[in-house]
């Protein structure tokens, strides 16, 4: 059983897809959000939950006071489940669900996020993940017509990548720098923040 840990929907259960996803455990979510709340990046934030699965990470953020959460999930059954979970928790007004591949979603017009949560499936390669991180930082397509690279991240944003401890550290683009690592059993959370190249 998967539940929201804390906030307005704390203790409420989530439906999870029968297969194809591995929801982040309650223990790991509790530790992650304790750190994120300490950093002050949840309450009032615009949040992107990429590879959303059941929506557990993004819905946890919404329960804890995020202003708006976008759940991006390629599998239509899982995306439909995200919508049902958001509605059942009474969070639907602050949660959008997009049934699309992450790369396709990030190819659209950027919105500014203060918190980005990525829990890619095991079959997402390190190269694919690096491409997604580069696109978040506004580097995948180079500069826009005004000569500036436009990413998805606020200047004080926090990016969190969840991976197996057997996976290598993500390849950070020039516009992101590592800001921490936390291991919880077989799960590792990598933290990064925007980094303006001063060179």
TrEMBL record:
Entry EC number(s): 2.1.1.171
Top EC class of this enzyme: transferase
Protein name in the entry: 16S rRNA (Guanine(966)-N(2))-methyltransferase RsmD
Record keyword Iron present: no
GO terms for MF: 16S rRNA (guanine(966)-N(2))-methyltransferase activity
Pfam families: Cons_hypoth95
Region ranges (Disordered): 6-25
Keyword Signal part of the UniProt annotation: no
Keyword annotations from UniProtKB, A to Z: Methyltransferase, Transferase
């Amino acid at each position: 059983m998967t539940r929201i840990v804390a906030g307005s929907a704390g203790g409420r259960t989530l439906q999870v897809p029968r297969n194809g996803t591995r929801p982040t455990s309650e223990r790991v979510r509790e530790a992650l959000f304790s750190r994120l709340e300490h950093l002050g990046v949840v309450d009032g934030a615009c949040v992107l939950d990429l590879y959303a699965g059941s929506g557990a990470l993004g819905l946890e953020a919404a329960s804890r006071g995020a202003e708006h959460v976008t759940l991006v999930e390629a599998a239509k059954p899982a995306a439909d489940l995200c919508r049902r979970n958001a509605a059942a928790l009474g969070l639907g007004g602050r949660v959008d669900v997009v049934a699309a591949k992450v790369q396709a979603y990030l190819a659209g017009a950027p919105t500014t996020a203060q918190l980005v949560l990525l829990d890619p499936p095991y079959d997402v390669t390190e190269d694919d993940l690096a491409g997604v991180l580069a696109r978040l930082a506004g580097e995948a397509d180079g500069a826009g017509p005004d000569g500036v690279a436009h990413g998805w991240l606020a200047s004080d944003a926090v990016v969190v990548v969840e991976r197996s401890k057997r996976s290598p550290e993500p390849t950070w683009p020039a516009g992101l720098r590592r800001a921490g690592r936390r291991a919880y059993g077989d799960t590792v959370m990598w933290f990064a923040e925007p980094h303006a190249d001063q060179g």
